[in-house]
C-alpha cells in the first residue's frame, strides 16, 4: 500500500473576500446560494481532503480579520508559513481598501517566501460577477493583477515558487478552473497519469480523455497537451479532432453541471453512477475509473459506439488504481516501464525478456 503524500495548503485573504464560500462550494458541495448562511472563519480551521488515494490536502483556512492576520505575522509566523506547498490568496475585487489589502498581502508573501521558498502562490481575485457588470473588459482586474505581481517580484528574492492569478466567482465555472489548476500541480506522477490518458484516448480513437476527482469533480488531468496549455501546444490528435474550436472552459463547465446534477439526484433519493450519450457529431461517456476518480471520453468518430468506450474503461480501471495501491501488481505496463516518473518497482520487471502485460501477443 502506498503512503499518501500530504500537502499543506494555506487559504488566506481578508475577511469577506469569499475564502470559506469557495471552500464550501468546492469541497462540501454547497451551491453559491447556500454560502449566504456561512459565518466568518475564526482563527484557523484545518481539514484533510484526500485525492486519488495518494494525495491528502491539509487545508488551513485562515481567518482574515485584521487581528488574526497580525497574529499570523507576529506570534505564529513559523507555525503558519512553514512546510507550505501552496498558498491560495483571495482578494475581493470590490474592496474599497485596496492599499491596505496589498500591505497585508505583502506581509504574508514575505513570510511565505522566508519559510517556504518553493511554495506556489495562486491569487484568486474573487467576486468578478459583481465587477463585470460595470467593467466588462476587466480593466480593473488587469490593474489588480499587475499590483499583485509587482508585490511578489519585489519580495521574491531567491525564492523559486511561482505565482499565478485567476479571476473567480462562486457563481460560475471560473472557480473550478482556478482550483483545478492548483490540484493539478500537486498530484504525484501527473506526467504518468497524462501519458496513460493519452494512450486511452488513442486506443479508443477518441478526441479527449479527461480525469475528474470523484467528490469535488475538479479536473485532474487530460490527454494530449498539458491542462493549462496554449492551443499552439496541442498534439496532432487534438488538432485533427477540432479541439482548437472547443470552449476552453468546457472541463470546468462539466464539473459544475455534474455536481449540480448529482445534488439533484441526492434530493430525489437517486444515486449518480455514470453518463453516456450519442450526439450528431460526438459520443460522450463518463464512467468511474478508480475509487477516487471518473474518466470522460469524447469521440468524434461516428463508427465508435459508447459500449466500446465503456469496455476499454472497464479494463483500464485496475491499472489506473495501481498508481495509488500497488498490492498484487506483477508487471508494469509498457508506458510505466518507459516513464521514469513511475514510482513503483516490481520484482523481475527490469528483465527485458519479460514482456509488459499490455504487449501485443500477451
TrEMBL record:
**Which domain of life does the protein's organism represent?**
Eukaryota
Set out the biological process GO terms recorded for this chain's protein: cellular response to starvation; negative regulation of autophagy; positive regulation of TORC1 signaling
Keyword list (alphabetical) reads: GTP-binding, Nucleotide-binding
In its keyword annotation, does this UniProt entry include DNA damage? no
Q: Which InterPro entries match?
A: Gtr1_RagA (IPR006762), P-loop_NTPase (IPR027417), RagA/B (IPR039397)
Would you name any one GO CC term? fungal-type vacuole membrane
This protein's record includes keyword GTP-binding: yes
Q: Which GO terms describe its molecular function?
A: GTP binding; GTPase activity
Family statement = Belongs to the GTR/RAG GTP-binding protein family.
Q: How does it assemble?
A: Component of the GSE complex.
Entry function = GTPase involved in activation of the TORC1 signaling pathway, which promotes growth and represses autophagy in nutrient-rich conditions.
* Name under which the protein is recorded: GTP-binding protein
Which species?
A: Tremella mesenterica
Amino acid at each position: 500500500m502506498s503512503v499518501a503524500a500530504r500537502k499543506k495548503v494555506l487559504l488566506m485573504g481578508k475577511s469577506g473576500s469569499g475564502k470559506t464560500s469557495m471552500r464550501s462550494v468546492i469541497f462540501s458541495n454547497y451551491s453559491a446560494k447556500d454560502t449566504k448562511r456561512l459565518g466568518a472563519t475564526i482563527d484557523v480551521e484545518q481539514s484533510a481532503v484526500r485525492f486519488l488515494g495518494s494525495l491528502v490536502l491539509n487545508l488551513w483556512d485562515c481567518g482574515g480579520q485584521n487581528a488574526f492576520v497580525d497574529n499570523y505575522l507576529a506570534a505564529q509566523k513559523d507555525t503558519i508559513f512553514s512546510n507550505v506547498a501552496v498558498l491560495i490568496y483571495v482578494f475581493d475585487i470590490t474592496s474599497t481598501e485596496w492599499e491596505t489589502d496589498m500591505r497585508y498581502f505583502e506581509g504574508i508573501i514575505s513570510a511565505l517566501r522566508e519559510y517556504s521558498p518553493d511554495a506556489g502562490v495562486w491569487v484568486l481575485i474573487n467576486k468578478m460577477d459583481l465587477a463585470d457588470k460595470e467593467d466588462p473588459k476587466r480593466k480593473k482586474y488587469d490593474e489588480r493583477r499587475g499590483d499583485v505581481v509587482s508585490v511578489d517580484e519585489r519580495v521574491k528574492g531567491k525564492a523559486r515558487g511561482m505565482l499565478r492569478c485567476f479571476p473567480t466567482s462562486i457563481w460560475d465555472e471560473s472557480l473550478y478552473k482556478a482550483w483545478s489548476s492548483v490540484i493539478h500541480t500537486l498530484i504525484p506522477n501527473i506526467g504518468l497519469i497524462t501519458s496513460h490518458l493519452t494512450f486511452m484516448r488513442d486506443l479508443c480513437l477518441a478526441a479527449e480523455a479527461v480525469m475528474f476527482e470523484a467528490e469535488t469533480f475538479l479536473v485532474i488531468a487530460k490527454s494530449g497537451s498539458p491542462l493549462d496549455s496554449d492551443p499552439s501546444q496541442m498534439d496532432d490528435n487534438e488538432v485533427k479532432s477540432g479541439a482548437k474550436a472547443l470552449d476552453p472552459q468546457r472541463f470546468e463547465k462539466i464539473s459544475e453541471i455534474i455536481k449540480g446534477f448529482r445534488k439533484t439526484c441526492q434530493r430525489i433519493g437517486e444515486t449518480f453512477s455514470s453518463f453516456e450519450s450519442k450526439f450528431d457529431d460526438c459520443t460522450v461517456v463518463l464512467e468511474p475509473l478508480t475509487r477516487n476518480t471518473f474518466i470522460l471520453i469524447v469521440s468524434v468518430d461516428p463508427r465508435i459506439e459508447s459500449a466500446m468506450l465503456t469496455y476499454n474503461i472497464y479494463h483500464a480501471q485496475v491499472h489506473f488504481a495501481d498508481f495509488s495501491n500497488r498490492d498484487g501488481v506483477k508487471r508494469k505496463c509498457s508506458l510505466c516501464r518507459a516513464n521514469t516518473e513511475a514510482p513503483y518497482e516490481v520484482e523481475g520487471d527490469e528483465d527485458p525478456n519479460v514482456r509488459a502485460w499490455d504487449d501485443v501477443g500477451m
